[in-house]
Every structure is written in C-alpha cells, then in structure tokens.
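A reminder from the course coordinator: this example appears on the midterm review sheet, so study it carefully.

Given structure:
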C-alpha cells in the first residue's frame, strides 16, 4: 500500500512538472530571458504579419455619397483581387462634413493601424475656416495615397434659360440675390468653393451670393429639381445620371480639359474665359501614429490596387479621373493646396 502511494505521488509530480514546462514553452505572453532571471514581454509581431484582423475604412458621410462610393470601391477591389486577405468593413460616420469623425480619429484612434478613411479637400477646408467645425486637419493623419480626381460641375435644371456659364455669371453679377445656389455641404466647402472661386475671378463678390447647404448631394439635387434652387454645385460623378435622363444641364466643368463620355460637350470653366480651377482629389489616410509596418503595407497595396484592371473599371464606371500619387507626392499636394485654400478663404473673409 505504501509502495503504491509513493508511485502515485511520483506520477503526479511528473505530470505537474510537464504541464508547467509546456506552459513556459507555449508563448502565452511571457518568456524567461536566459541569464537574467526576469520575465520579458513577447516580442511584437513581425512586419510581414500585418494585417492580422479586420480592417475598417471610414466614409465620413452618409450612405450613397461620394466618400461612401469611394470607400466601397476601394474595399471591393482590395478584397475581390485578394490584395488584402482580411475582411474590410466600410463604416459611415456622417456629421459636420467629416469633422465629427475627425474629432474621434485624431484623438482616440491615432494609433489604430486597422482604421483608415477616405477624404477630399474638405479635410483641409474644415480646419482652415474661422468658423470651421474641426480643430483637426490633414496634419493629424498619415496621408497614404491620392487615388483619383473628381471634377466640380455647375448645373442648372434642364428648362433653365441659362445655357452657358457667362450668361449665368452676368446675371449673378447684376443681382446676386436673384438666384439661389445649392450644394451638398456647408459654406466654405468644396461645393461652395466650386462656384465661389470662379465667381470671384469674374468680379462677383462671393459673400453676396445666396448659398444654401444641404445634407448631402442627393438632397441638393432634389432642391434643384424641385425648384428650391436655381443653380447646383456638385461633382461630375454625382450628376451624370441626371444629365443622361435629361433633367439637368451642366454649364461648365472645373477641369483642366473637357471630360469624355457624357460630359464631352461640356466646356471647362477656363473655356469661359475664367482662370480658375479647384482640384478635387480623393485620397486615403491613416492615423497620425500609424506604425511603419502598416504604412509600408498600405503604400505598397494601394499602389498595386491603382494599377489593377478592377480599379480602372471602378474609375470608368464612376466617371473618376485616375490620378494616383504616392504618400510623399500626396503630402506635397496637400501642403500646396492647404496654402492656396487659406488664401482663397481669406478673400472671402472665411479664414481663421
């Protein structure tokens, strides 16, 4: 009996020892560094392991808007072409033209390698306006890539008496309060400046033009078609279906040269004799304290995506103009446009 008990105790001790040894070698969060007698944390994952979980791309707008379309197109191509193995979720965060999202992203998400967002010059404008609603701007992010351009358009209803930009601007110059301009974002935004910049160059005081902002481009289009506005400022991709349906006329496009397809007969603002152009880029950004591994991954991945046939198809379907710029080039564009927009807003007494 005594011998059996001793054998049982030896067996239990051996099992316990083997379990302890297995736990030490399992990589369960701690390790004993030889020669120190101290426990060290498990080393960080290698650069090649990123990304390891679901990624979120934020569209700082409601569903169906320009940012939403951009984010979903990016996510679709990355997943369908297996350029990213993990799931990608598109998250809509509307409010304040993106300022509500930025307040969260620039503070609580500044180290989150798994959250990106798409934006436009609105990111700069919200931060530059003296009555702007965001203390955060592009300098609170890591610019990863510019992917394409969209182009501003100046639109009127199909039955409008205006058939060219000059006649419209002549009437605005004579009586600015006579006509109402609608846009899908706040005063000082891209929609606003698409008309205000050429109007200013034409000799019209931008502060005298009656601008009504709506929550999104679909609502501003509804206002135009419903007779609550005389002019609409939007982007080409958002109005194409209405042009095809014969519901609106596009008087001018804010582009360096005429666009093709549906807009092939629409003159540029410069063709109207007005030296004005507001570049509307669309780009991808990461958090300010993004890790070098994540930044390198996205720079490489977004470049490959921009060269793919799937992405070129998205550009064609949405009437977007391919204009890829890498992170360094994109940073330079942002710096230059930020300075130019600040000067423009000063002329309108809207800069900080």
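Designed residues:
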């Amino acid at each position: 009996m005594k011998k059996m008990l001793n054998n049982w105790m030896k067996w239990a001790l051996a099992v316990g020892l083997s379990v302890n040894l297995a736990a030490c070698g399992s990589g369960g969060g701690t390790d004993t560094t030889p020669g120190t007698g101290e426990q060290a944390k498990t080393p960080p994952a290698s650069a090649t392991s990123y990304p390891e979980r679901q990624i979120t791309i934020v569209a700082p707008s409601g569903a169906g808007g320009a940012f939403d379309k951009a984010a979903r197109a990016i996510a679709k191509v990355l997943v369908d072409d297996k350029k990213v193995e993990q799931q990608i979720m598109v998250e809509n965060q509307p409010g304040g033209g993106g300022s509500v999202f930025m307040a969260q992203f620039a503070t609580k998400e500044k180290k989150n390698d798994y959250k990106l967002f798409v934006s436009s010059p609105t990111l700069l404008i919200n931060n530059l306006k003296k009555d702007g609603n965001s203390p955060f701007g592009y300098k609170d992010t890591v610019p990863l890539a510019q992917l394409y351009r969209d182009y501003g358009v100046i639109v009127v209803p199909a039955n409008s008496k205006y058939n060219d930009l000059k006649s419209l601007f002549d009437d605005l110059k004579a009586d600015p309060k006579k006509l109402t301009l609608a846009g899908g974002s706040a005063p000082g935004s891209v929609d606003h400046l698409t008309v205000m910049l050429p109007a200013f160059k034409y000799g019209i005081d931008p502060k005298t033009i009656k601008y009504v902002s709506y929550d999104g481009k679909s609502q501003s289009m509804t206002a135009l078609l419903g007779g609550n506005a005389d002019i609409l400022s939007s982007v080409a991709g958002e109005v194409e279906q209405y042009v095809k349906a014969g519901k609106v006329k596009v008087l001018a496009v804010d582009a360096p040269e005429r666009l093709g397809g549906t807009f092939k007969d629409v003159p540029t603002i410069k063709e109207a004799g007005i030296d004005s152009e507001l570049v509307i880029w669309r780009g991808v950004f990461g958090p300010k304290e993004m890790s070098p591994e994540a930044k390198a991954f996205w720079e490489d991945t977004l470049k490959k995506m921009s060269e793919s046939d799937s992405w070129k198809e998205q550009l064609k379907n949405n009437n977007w103009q391919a204009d890829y710029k890498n992170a360094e080039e994109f940073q330079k564009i942002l710096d230059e446009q930020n300075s130019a927009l600040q000067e423009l807003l000063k002329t309108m007494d809207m800069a900080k």
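Residues 1-46 have pLDDT under 50 and may be disordered. Residues 2-24 form the longest helix (23 residues).
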